[in-house]
Amino acid sequence: MLYVHSSPSAVCPHVEWAISGTLGSRVDLQWTAQPAAPGQLRAECDWSASAGTAGKLAGALKAWPMVRFEVAEEPSPGVDGERFCYAPGLGLWHGRTSANGDIVVGEDQLRTIVANSRAGEVLAHRLDELLGANWDEALEPFRHAGDGAPVTWLHQVG
């Protein structure tokens, strides 16, 4: 899934061009008002493409730092799923995901955090960073504002 949580109307065509360029097919999203950010628009689309496309979509969309978005790629045989979140002021966050969408934290990541943050508060802060807590907090109002919004279906050409 690709969620454009908020975009100024003037940037919406650029968002569609970025998605089109990444997927190799023309994209026409159904834009609706974003109640969490009056004057901004939102859109959703489901996409189908090869593994790694979520990262390419996130890379293309982060060119507009005023756009809030999330891109999720489901796991496929031999490849973990991924989620990318972008929020102005926070930048881009990336996490691997399990089949049910939970963030997967690797053993080495946990060992490094535990070894470098023995104090409870520091450990909690670093775990929150690893799980994308700040991005979830920043994007949550925009997620709820999109309940029931129309979804566009996209497929990669090739």
Give your account of this protein's structure:
The protein is an alpha+beta fold. The chain has one domain (2-103, 139-155). It has helices at 12-23, 53-61, 107-116, 120-131, 133-145, and strands spanning 2-8, 32-33, 40-48, 68-73, 81-87, 91-97, 103-104, 151-155. Strands 1, 2, 3, 4, 5, 6, 7 and 8 form an eight-stranded mixed sheet that branches. Helix 1 (12-23) packs antiparallel against helix 2 (53-61). It is globular, with a radius of gyration of 16 Å.
Supply the helix-strand structural class.
Answer: alpha+beta
How many domain regions?
A: 1
Range of helix content: 25-40%
Largest sheet: 8 strands, mixed
Mean pLDDT: 89
Strand and helix layout:
Layout: E1 2-8, H1 12-23, E2 32-33, E3 40-48, H2 53-61, E4 68-73, E5 81-87, E6 91-97, E7 103-104, H3 107-116, H4 120-131, H5 133-145, E8 151-155
Parallel strand pairs: 3-8
Antiparallel strand pairs: 1-3, 1-4, 2-3, 4-5, 5-6, 6-7
InterPro entries: DUF3145
Protein name: DUF3145 domain-containing protein
Pfam family, one: DUF3145
